[in-house]
Task: structure prediction
Amino acid sequence: MSDNATVTTVSALGNDLAGKYLTFYIGNCTYGVELVHVIEIIGIQDATSVPGVPAYIKGIINLRGRIVPVIDVRLKIGEEEKAYDERTCIIVINWQESLVGLIVDSVSEVIDFSADQLSALPEFSNVNTKKYLSSVCKTGNRLVLNLDCEKFLTDDTVSELHG
Result:
């Protein structure tokens, strides 16, 4: 998609973002990211490759004059690569005063979770379930796995690319 891709600005949702999560899909699994981190949602764009970075970092894009690294969430969490389609989008988040783009299969909705709806992740032997997740929440007949932006973005190369 070009630079004039359709843009949804989250600031239009108001100032009270506590407890609100933007939900998105990776395959059949629903994930959430705290709305307080979300700046906007944009259509998928061609990224300029950056040599020497892991495959999940798809490169950088120019977003209205700002250079934004983009990460394919699917690849970072260990899922198989999938061709991008018309539902694939980039969730632009604010992290440590910089912008980072998260490529997701599709965006779902904003859900307001109360503190008592959020549960700690269960422990599984030999599986680090808390590597990138902060909590899990049941909404209707589905579970939402909530992404911990700090854990997800604070590692090897991601922190070197922002800024």
Remarks:
- The chain has one domain: 7-161.
- Residues 149-153 form the longest helix (5 residues).
- The longest strand covers residues 20-26.
- The radius of gyration is 15 Å.
